[in-house]
UniProtKB/TrEMBL annotation:
Pfam families the UniProt entry points to: CDP-OH_P_transf
An annotated Gene Ontology molecular function: phosphotransferase activity, for other substituted phosphate groups
Family: Belongs to the CDP-alcohol phosphatidyltransferase class-I family.
GO cellular component, one term: membrane
Membrane-spanning intervals of the chain: 29-49, 80-103, 110-130, 163-191
Keyword Aminoacyl-tRNA synthetase: no
Keyword Transmembrane carried by entry: yes
Assigned keywords, A-Z: Membrane, Transferase, Transmembrane, Transmembrane helix
Entries under InterPro entries matching the protein: CDP-OH_P_trans (IPR000462), CDP-OH_PTrfase_TM_dom (IPR043130), CDP_ALCOHOL_P_TRANSF_CS (IPR048254)
Annotated protein name in UniProt: CDP-alcohol phosphatidyltransferase family protein
Gene Ontology process terms (BP): phospholipid biosynthetic process
Amino acid sequence: MIDKALRVPKETLLGQMVRGPLRRLHPNAVTLAAAVIGVAAAGAAWQGAYLPALGLWMLNRVLDGLDGTLARTTGQQSDLGAYLDIVLDHVVYVAVPLGLVLAMGTPAAYLALILLLASFYINAASWMYLAALLEKRNAGAAAHGELTTVTMPTGLLEGAETIVFYTLFLLLPGALVPLFGLMAGLVLITVGQRMVWAVRNLQ
């Protein structure tokens, strides 16, 4: 919901971080490091080490933003980098709630996880294919000056809100089932928003 408003301030902040020694890193290496750290956060959550998991999750999010800024600042943007970023983000998005549920181990938690991951699956189709259609129509990221490789259609729940929810998952593991249910519901509302937009604008 607020991702577009945050992109310029985020780029400004992260841009200052890549003016030093970090410029020597390859953006894809940062992407891979972010993924390893994100999976480590899931592993820590599985072991019930929630505060270390939270720290690793936040580091994953910083690195996930840093790779794109580094690529743009150093002229190393590539389709492969953008592809790796999206795929590995989704690996982490699945791994963290899975780790939390493995730690809890209750039937209710597993059912809530199924609902959450099902909503993610539907959401991925809703935004990725819509983004592809917008790029095909030359109405995508480049046309609007966005700081992403492909446009990400807006909705109620986007990247910033996902960070908030995952942080709450790790801070309040006892409330995991209702939090999973709430996030899944908001994700499906977001899917509905995109479908309504598509019906009105795609002919």
